[in-house]
Amino acid sequence: MPAPRTTLRRNVAAVAALPLLAVALTACGYGSDSADDAKKVNAASGKKLSADTVRIGYFPNLTHATALVGDQEGLFQKELGGTQLKTATFNAGPSEIEALNANSIDIGFIGPSPSINGYTKSKGQNLRIIGGSASGGVKLVVNPKKIKSLDDLKGKKIATPQLGNTQDVAFLNWISEKGWKVDAQSGKGDVSVVRTDNKVTPDAYKSGSIDGAWVPEPTASKLVAEGAKELLDESTLWPDDKFVITNIIVSQKFLKDHPDVVEAVLRGSVKTNAWINANPDKAKESANAALKKLTGKALPPEVIDPAWKSIQITDDPLAATLDAQAQHAVKAGLLEEPDLKGIYDLKPLNKILKAAGEPEADDAGLGVK
């Protein structure tokens, strides 16, 4: 896969110096009276694999639709048979990496920045990327009264979710491509980069404390519903309009000890992705039902409809774009030059894809030997 266009490359994260954010919501348990849980309990039949339980972490975000729908519809549990699925949700990548390192979860759906940072900080000892999940779903949205064009961003206050996170590095890289200067750590310069939690960003926009935001869905569509205007879809700045926003990681120990369980989860992911792409409206409803269960509130149509359309669900981890994102973080001064060789192990995924008659995924030369 060719490198991204120079008009904007993407990001990755140097979450190295960032404090960990707390785990947001914990896990859907089994054995409750709800129909959804009953469906998943009924699916937990058949032969038990090499582990009694597999613990999967993900975010209650649309960019984690594979996990939301796969859990909601019982598709993971069906592949796991008698091995029980337990899930936990997180608000930030660093906390999910910490949970993986602490053996609190075995497999995670997570963005490229924390994947890279977790791998490099452990000198390649803690995780592997074993599959893709989603591409796209990131937009620059602005106050149309203050910003009419991309050149108007100079001198304005633009939010990103977190210092060194995937969108933060993407925006810093875009600023650099424009020839503007911003201090990455402070966010001060030709553009003021304001690090703001996605949950707070809509209120910050309404109050006027920010003029726009470079954010993932559904935050971008929430801002548009508040009167903001979409100025740029990041996917248009990448070859084939694709870049990794969510991939699947696994603890190296769990992969070594329980390869059959990992393969079952990947089969569930591939089947979930196929179902989502074949049934986009039903899948959107399923994802929203999962969000309501996890957060207490479903997304309204004016938010979920445009957000859902901007996300591409894929088995391909889009490895070349992750490598490019790492270089953008290095360029921004937020990450030391990383050695990413061995970050991918796509053998289990490619076995599944080959059996399904689908093209195998490429690791961009960053796979285990």
Q: What do these coordinates show?
A:
This protein is α/β, with parallel strands linked by helices. The protein has 14 helices and 12 strands. Strands 1-3-2-4-11-5-12 form a 7-stranded mixed beta sheet, sandwiched between helices. It has a 5-stranded mixed beta sheet with strand order 8-7-9-6-10, sandwiched between helices. Helix 2 packs across helix 11 and helix 10 crosses helix 14. The protein is globular and about 60 Å long. The two termini are 20 Å apart.
Q: Hey, roughly how much beta strand do the residues contain? A: 15-25%
Query: Which quaternary structure do these chains form?
Result: single chain
Mean pLDDT across all residues, rounded? 89
Q: Low-confidence spans: pLDDT under 50, at least 5 residues?
A: 1-35
Q: N- to C-terminal separation? A: 20 Å
Structural class: alpha/beta
Which H/E pattern describes the elements? EHEHHEHEHEEEHEHEHEEHHHHEHH
Sketch the major β-sheet: 7 strands, mixed
Percent helix among the residues?
Answer: 25-40%
The shape, in one word, is: globular
Number of strands: 12
Specify Rg, calculated over alpha carbons: 20 Å
Biggest sheet: strand arrangement: 1-3-2-4-11-5-12
- Tally of contiguous helical segments: 14
A few lines on this structure:
The protein has 14 helices and 12 strands. With about 375 residues, the protein is an alpha/beta fold. The longest helix is centred in the C-terminal third of the chain and has 20 residues, at about 260-280.
